[in-house]
Amino acid sequence: MKEREMRLMKGNEAIAEAAIRAGADAFYGYPITPQTEVMEYLMETDATARTGMAVLQAESEVSAINMVYGGASTGHRVMTSSSSPGISLMAEGISYLAGAELPCLLINVSRGGPGLGTIQPSQADYFQTVKGGGHGDYKLLTLAPSSVQELADFIALGFDLAFKYRNPTMILADGALGQMMEKIYLPAQRPRFTEYPDWATNGTPEGKERRFITSLNLLPQEHELVNIRLQKKYREMEQNEVRYEMIQCDDADYVIVAFGIIARIAQKSIELARAKGHKIGLFRPISLYPFPYDQIREMADNPRIKGLMSVELSAGQMIEDIRLAVEGRKPVGFFGRLGGMVPTPEEIETALYNYFNIK
Amino acid sequence: MSTAMEVNDIIKPENLVYQKSRLMAEKQFNFCPGCGHGVVVRTIAEVIEEMGIEHDVIGISPVGCSVFLYDFYKFDVVEAAHGRACAVATGIKRVQPDKFVFTYQGDGDLAAIGTGETMHACNRGENIVIVFINNGIYGMTGGQMAPTTLEGMKTTTCPRGRDVKTMGYPLNITPLLAQLDGVCYVTRHSVHTPANVRKLKKALRQAFENQRDKKGTSIVEVVSNCNSGWGLTPKAANDWMVENMFKKYPLGDIKVDGKIVMDMNAPR
Lengths: 359, 268
What we know:
The complex is a heterodimer of chains A (359) and B (268). In chain A, 41% of the residues lie in helices and 20% in strands. By secondary structure, chain A is an alpha/beta fold. Chain A has two domains: 5-195 and 213-240, Rossmann fold (3-Layer(aba) Sandwich), CATH 3.40.50; 245-356, Rossmann fold (3-Layer(aba) Sandwich). In chain A, strand 4, helix 5 and strand 5 (104-110) form a beta-alpha-beta unit. The longest helix of chain A has 21 residues, at 220-240. Helix content of chain B is 37%, strand content 18%. Chain B has helices at 7-10, 37-51, 69-72, 85-95, 107-113, 115-123, 164-167, 173-178, 194-212, 227-230, 234-248, and strands at residues 57-61, 76-79, 100-106, 129-134, 137-138, 144-145, 183-189, 217-223, 252-256, 259-260. Chain A binds chain B through residues 25-26, 28, 54, 56, 58-60, 62-64, 66-74, 76, 78, 92-93, 96, 100, 201-206, 210-216, and chain B through 54-58, 60, 67, 70, 73-81, 84, 87-96, 99, 116-117, 119-120.
């Protein structure tokens, strides 16, 4: 077994290598920029020869997500990755996965929309990821990495959370994370699991009752109970799975809230501001669902903090959750670039000064 | 004959000529009386029971009248989104190549919304069994036009009959699928007479044996009735099927052991 290992890797390659090492049983995908290297890497490094995992190029994202549904229904650790338009195509399947409570790992290396949009990085799929995307009342456990290291680390974590809650996990990355190269530490090879949950439809064992996977209930009184059970599960996730990072918030007068790649850039912005004597902090949600409402509310209640600013690669989506947390206690500013454009640290710094009238 | 047989004399194990497969659950079918679905569903159970593979089989029931398959069987079943049965089957089979996987799909599922998934699973030669119920109509939603609806046939979405100029032609999909190299076996059957049911059973057995021997995709089409959707009595529906459906969709083998055996140029 390979031990923990240091490598210089592209984000998309790190996804693939981490998936192999996490003991994934299958990857079903369809090429789309900017995440195509994931499947290329799995094929090039012969993941199947290394661990026996299945790697299959589907004829569409619709097919890929339904292959994930099939593999996941048997209790295997199955994943796919795609980018924004592909995730839109998968929306029905994702709703089915959530409805049938099938654990799996989904990755969105997102790009600028709407429509065909652009292949450059974007965070405009925030609403799609945490507010729905598909039909019905469901939630995806959503992790937002801000480095290639986290992208790799969240693969095993994502699978483990998915199986803990019998729910799909989504890693919301972006084109920059997928394409950039960083030094990372890869985990040791984890063996593929050989035990499957009791609910898995992998052939009824002798002496056992047959299992079935479905999200269908014709009787509304029964289906309401299913929904109530799902909601109870989501409340548990909200209790247990909030993840975030606070950087220099202890003495901050103003706090930037940013996730993913833009949090990396904003980290430089707060350094620049602090060099000029402005006490700026950075709050980085790592789990986008469940969202760290309580932690942001605490900051809003902190008398020293005068305001927060959401910085996003979108027209302002996460800011709605920040405002829900702040509940009007403090001003919440916004700065965003759209359509695949990425701001410089100085742009963010200037936007902050302008909004809060910092001289 | 001296005395008439008492009922209790008749109901004896040695007099038993037929019984429901033990793989069928104690659940009443929700199919309309007279519909062919139930016969196909239980014939599949009989084949699986006779092959002794019930601990290694996974059925896939997508949206349509097939959707409640999991209520009827005592083996594992996965319900799938409309049209996606072959993708779901692929996902299952690729992580468990030694299990038996079959889909049970209607014409809307297989030949309309799921054409892509069906075509590509067949083209990859996924080692699965596809059971395809062709009754020329959407039964579950109440009798709309299907890709297989015959020319001139009336449904709720072609109430004046299918006009091929605007609505397209009846899609005879199994001969198309037969031309794909990944497909080893394509055959077309019906369940309107006991003799036909016996033929179907043999075909299903052949299909599952192909899967056991890793020969590629096997497709068993069943041309069936939908007496409710067609607005006919069960008897009249079967007669109409023989007279009309069998002309467009003639019964018999289409591809056997990887070789096309049907005369593709025969007038239909």
